[in-house]
Each structure stands twice: as C-alpha cells, then as structure tokens.
Write a structure and sequence with these properties.
The chain has 6 helices and 2 strands. By secondary structure, the chain is mainly α. A two-stranded antiparallel ribbon has the order 1-2. It is elongated.
Length: 129
C-alpha cells in the first residue's frame, strides 16, 4: 500500500490484502462504510468510494439493506491480477535484460534457482552470515 495514494485507494488496497490473507473470506460480509470510516477516521464518502471501487471490479457485491460481501472468486481474481502485475513489473524486464546480456533461458533458470530465498523471518544480515 502506498501512503501517497489517495485514501480511498489505500482503503481498497487494504481490503484486497484482507481478502488475500483470508481476513475476509469469499461470501462473507465486510465492515460497513460507516465502520471503515470510524475505524480509519475518514469521511464516510471516502470509505464508500473505496467499497464502490471494489464493487465495480467485481471483488465485492452489495446486498441491498444488508451490506457488502466478498464475491465468489474474488481471491482468485486478485491473485491473477497480482501475478499479471508481477510479470509486467519484474519478469518482462528480467527476460529483456537477460536477452541483452546473451543469457539463455536455461542459464536464467539456473541463476534464479541459485539465488538465495528470503522469507519474512529471514533477514539480509542473517542470510549473509
């Protein structure tokens, strides 16, 4: 989440993270506009804009008089969108640079497999020791 982004974008990204992390499973109700507004201390119209953005994307749907719910397939949709963005931001430039350097696919594969892997519990200091 980018703090320089508008608040409604930050909130919609936070809800997306909640869906991806399992905080908001599919077919469960998300907090109301007023609940988000109160919790985040923002204008309810701003919270509503965030929720409506997710409705427009098919991530949430409205049940009139009841609230907003996570749509079936929302998590998979978000995963696919993130994978596509990851490929565009990282894989495509990686492959382009590898081609410029004359690195073939097999060599690139070996380089990736040999690269150290980091988990959220691993720090760079710990990995270098």
């Amino acid at each position: 989440m980018t703090e320089s982004a508008p608040i409604f974008i930050q909130l919609s990204q936070s809800i997306e993270e909640g869906i991806l992390d399992g905080l908001y499973p599919e077919e469960t109700q998300v907090p109301s506009t007023n609940e988000f507004a109160s919790f985040m201390r923002i204008n309810p119209a701003t919270a509503g804009k965030a929720l409506n953005r997710l409705v427009d994307q098919g991530i949430l749907y409205k049940k009139r008089g009841i609230g907003m719910f996570v749509a079936t397939g929302a998590r998979q949709q978000l995963v696919q969108e993130r994978r596509d963005a990851f490929a565009a931001a990282y894989i495509k430039p990686l492959v382009t640079e590898a081609q410029r350097l004359g690195i073939n696919v097999d060599s690139l594969h070996e380089m990736i497999n040999a690269a150290p892997t980091y988990t959220s519990k691993t720090t760079l200091e710990g990995a270098q020791s």
